[in-house]
Amino acid sequence: MSEPVYLNVKNLHAYYGESHILHGINFHVNRGECLSLLGRNGAGRTTTLRAIMGLTGKRSGSITVNGTETIKLATHKIAQLGIGYCPEERGIYSSLSCEENLLMPPIVSSGGMSLEEIYDMFPNLKERRHSQGTRMSGGEQQMLAMARILRTGAKLLLLDEISEGLAPVIVDRLAEIITTLKSRGFTIVLVEQNFKFAAPLADRMVIIEHGQVCMEVKQEELAVKQNEMFELLGV
Fold first, then answer.
1. Splitting the chain (235 residues) into consecutive groups of 10 residues, what average pLDDT does each group show?
2. Are strands 204-209 and 34-38 parallel, antiparallel or unpaired?
3. What are the residue boundaries of the structural domains of the chain, listed by start?
């Protein structure tokens, strides 16, 4: 029996001012699944995550989270449904320590990780817990941005370009963490430019081009469809 659909995006249009960025996006994510949104720069992947959170301008269509329609909800109401958004720019507060950054977000749902659980998963953060947020390395800041949303109780994680610009050893560690989160039942949408990072982690991959879904590939189809995917992605 297949898992129920946790996030369902239908005919999603989104705008920044007068610019029409998303042109009828359609995809779904099942509970406990990792879906990767792939595409070239400017394809609309980050805008898709921002539209799910209500952070674009005008948007239309349908976005349901665990059965609740969110297209007309304010961003804080969407977050309260148990969604954690990790933006590409990370959003670390420079005036706060690592631990203060972790404690900053509100609890949106029950079952969030304790500080002890987070430090078990991210031992680097325990070592740097008293360090100023922006004095940490890029990899440590990325771990902090991810860890921060796990405290909130969010069960749906939207992760935007978390591997970008990081050393291979850190990228490998982030892959291990995502695998662990999947095993714990988290539902994950991973926006990535790094195909080698995203492909092994994703149950399915959706390729976006010009604000529309142009291809969907299941993990077991990867070997057969890889060349076609690479052509679309310009790899």
1. 84 94 96 95 93 94 96 94 90 91 86 92 93 89 92 94 91 94 95 91 95 94 88 82
2. parallel
3. 1-82+155-168+187-235, 89-154
b (16+ CB within 10 A) / e for 136-147 = beebbbbbbbbb
Return phi, psi of residue 16, to 5°. -115, 105
Token readout for 60 is 């239309």
Q: Which amino acid is it at 59?
A: R
Q: Top-level CATH class of 1-82+155-168+187-235?
A: alpha beta
Task: Give the per-residue pLDDT at 233.
Answer: 86
Measured CA to CA, the distance from residue 61 to residue 43 in angstroms comes to 19
What is the reported pLDDT for 2?
A: 57
For the chain, percent helix, then strand, then coil, each to nearest 5? 35, 30, 35
Angstrom distance (rounded) from CA 58 to CA 217: 30
